[in-house]
Design goal:
Helices cover 61% and strands 3% of the residues. Strand 3 (60-62) and strand 4 (67-71) form a beta hairpin. It is built from 23 helices and 4 strands. The chain is mainly alpha-helical. 51% of the residues are buried. It starts with 9 loop residues before the first helix and ends in a 7-residue tail after the last helix. Among the domains are: 10-227, no CATH class; 383-438, no CATH class. It has helices spanning 10-14, 24-40, 72-77, 81-96, 109-117, 131-134, 142-145, 154-171, 176-185, 194-202, 207-219, 229-246, 248-254, 262-274, 278-291, 296-307, 312-326, 331-342, 350-361, 368-380, 384-398, 401-414, 420-431, and strands at residues 20-21, 49-53, 60-62, 67-71.
C-alpha cells in the first residue's frame, strides 16, 4: 500500500494532527466503487480526488472543490461496501449542492490550495515506512483539528442526504447502506466515545434525517439490490491493508494464520512487513501473486517489500510488472520504480528513472518526494539547471516559497532560455511573488 507517511507519536495523535495517506490500490478500488454515483451526480469521476486521512475517528468531509476526505477510522468501521457508498453518496450530495466549506468559517483557501498542490494520494509504499517517502507526507494539523468549522447546517445535511439517495437510486445501488450507517452512529445514544463522535460533530444527526432516509429506502426499487461479491471482497482487502499497516499486532490477532482468505493473507503480509519480518511476509506475498498474477498492486507490494528491505535491484522487476498491468493508473508505482532505480546509485539508470518520474508528474502522483527524486536523477546526469528546477518544484510542493523562488531563479540562469524547464521556472517564480517576465 503506497501510503506517504510515518506513524506520528501518540502525543501528535492526541493533538488531532492528521496526515494524508496515498495508496494506488485503495484509490482505484474506492473510485471504481463510487464511479456510478459521481456519474449520476453529473460529475466527472476523474475530477474527484478521494483522499485518505490518517485519523481513527469515524468521519468524512468535502473541501476545496471536488475533494472527498475519508478518515481511516471510517474505512475500518463500515460493515460493508453499501455503507461506504452511502457515505460517499452523501458527500457527493454536498459537492453537487455547493455546500463546500468557505472562508474563515472553514478552511483557509490558500492553505488548502497549497495542500492539494502537494499531490495528495502520492508516493511511497503503504508498507514502506520509508523516511524519504514519509517526508512527503502532509500534516494537516490544526486546520482540520477544529471539527466544528467543517460542520454543515442541518438543512444542508438533509439536502445532501436527499441528493445522495437520488444518486444511489439512479445508480441501482441500495440506499440501505446509508440507512444502516446513520443508525450505526445513532442519535440519543448514551455518550459515544471520541472515536465514534467525529461524523456526528461534523454532520449533525437528527432523528428526522434518519427517518427520511428510512422512508426513502422503504419505497426504493433497489432497496434489496446487492453489490457484487467482488466489490465486498475489494473492501475487505483495503481494510486488511489498513489494519496491517496501522496496527500490525492487532492485525495478526484479527487475521489468524489459519485463515486462508485473500484479505486475511493481505493483512498478515502487511503486518509482518511492518514488523520487519521479511521471512514471514515474503511467502504470503508470493502466494497472493500466484493466485492473482495480473493484479498490479500485488506486484507493487512485492516491489515495496524488496525496496524497503535493502534489495533495491530486486524491486525493479516487480515494479515494472506492476506498471505494465496498471497502465494509466500506475503513477505512484512509477515513482516507486524510480526510487528503486536511484537507490542503486548507478548513473546508467537515471534515464529510466526520469522517464517514469516525468510520466508520473503529469498525473495525480505529484509530490515533494517525486521532485526530490527528480532532482537526484538530474544530479546523476550532472545537469545543474534541471537540479535547480526540480528542487524549486519540491520546495513549492512543500510550501517553502522562499526556497522555491531562489531555486527557480537559479534554474533560469542555468537553463537555455525558452526550454520547458526554464519556462516552468519562470512560472514558479511568478507563483512565489517574483516577476515572471523579468
Amino acid at each position: 500500500m503506497s501510503l506517504v507517511w510515518e506513524a506520528p507519536p501518540a502525543s501528535a495523535q492526541r493533538r488531532s494532527d492528521m496526515q494524508i495517506l496515498g495508496d494506488a490500490e485503495t484509490d482505484h478500488i474506492i473510485r471504481k466503487m463510487a464511479r456510478p454515483i459521481f456519474q449520476a451526480a453529473g460529475i466527472d469521476p476523474d475530477s474527484v480526488q478521494i483522499l485518505l486521512v490518517n485519523d481513527p475517528s469515524v468521519n468524512a468531509f468535502v473541501a476545496g472543490g471536488q475533494n472527498i476526505f475519508l478518515h481511516t477510522g471510517l474505512l475500518l468501521t463500515v460493515d460493508d461496501a453499501d455503507q461506504l457508498l452511502g457515505v460517499i453518496a452523501h458527500e457527493t450530495g454536498h459537492i453537487s449542492g455547493g455546500h463546500l466549506v468557505r472562508g474563515t468559517e472553514a478552511m483557509d483557501n490558500a492553505f488548502l490550495s497549497s495542500l492539494l498542490g502537494m499531490g495528495l494520494g502520492v508516493i511511497g509504499g503503504l508498507a514502506s515506512g520509508n523516511a524519504g517517502a514519509g517526508a512527503a507526507g502532509v500534516m494537516l494539523g490544526q486546520h482540520l483539528a477544529e471539527r466544528n468549522f467543517l460542520s454543515f447546517s442541518r438543512t444542508q445535511e438533509a439536502s445532501a442526504d436527499q441528493a445522495g439517495l437520488s444518486f444511489l437510486e439512479q445508480s441501482g445501488i441500495s440506499a440501505k447502506g446509508m440507512e444502516t450507517f446513520l443508525e450505526k452512529l445513532g442519535v440519543g445514544e448514551p455518550l459515544m466515545n471520541d472515536r465514534d463522535a467525529g461524523y456526528r460533530l461534523t454532520h449533525p444527526l437528527t432523528r428526522e434525517r434518519i427517518e427520511a432516509v428510512r422512508a426513502f429506502v422503504a419505497r426504493s426499487r433497489y432497496a434489496d439490490a446487492r453489490l457484487p461479491a467482488a466489490t465486498e471482497a475489494d473492501l475487505r482487502r483495503i481494510q486488511a491493508k489498513l489494519y496491517g499497516y496501522l496496527d500490525p499486532r492487532g492485525a495478526l490477532q484479527r487475521y489468524k494464520a489459519n485463515d486462508p482468505s485473500p484479505a486475511a493473507r493481505y493483512g498478515r503480509a502487511y503486518a509482518y512487513f511492518r514488523q520487519g519480518d521479511v521471512k514471514q511476509a515474503t511467502p504470503l506475498v508470493d502466494g497472493l501473486i500466484a493466485d492473482e498474477p495480473r493484479n498490479p498492486y500485488l506486484h507493487e507490494m512485492k516491489g515495496d517489500l524488496m525496496l524497503q528491505t535493502g534489495r533495491a535491484p530486486d524491486a525493479v522487476a516487480p515494479y515494472r510488472k506492476a506498471i505494465e498491468l496498471a497502465g494509466s493508473e500506475a503513477g505512484t508505482i512509477r515513482v516507486s520504480l524510480a526510487h528503486a532505480l536511484l537507490e542503486q546509485r548507478d548513473p546508467r539508470l537515471a534515464d529510466e528513472a526520469l522517464k517514469n518520474l516525468q510520466i508520473a508528474s503529469k498525473g495525480k502522483a505529484q509530490s515533494a518526494f517525486l521532485w526530490r527524486l527528480t532532482a537526484q536523477a538530474w544530479s546523476m546526469k550532472k545537469n545543474d539547471g534541471m537540479v535547480a528546477y526540480a528542487t524549486a518544484e519540491e520546495a513549492l510542493a512543500r510550501g517553502d516559497l522562499p526556497m522555491a523562488k531562489a531555486q527557480a531563479e537559479r534554474a533560469e540562469k542555468l537553463l537555455p532560455a525558452g526550454s520547458p524547464g526554464w519556462l516552468r521556472a519562470q512560472d514558479i517564480r511568478g507563483q512565489t511573488g517574483g516577476d515572471r517576465t523579468r
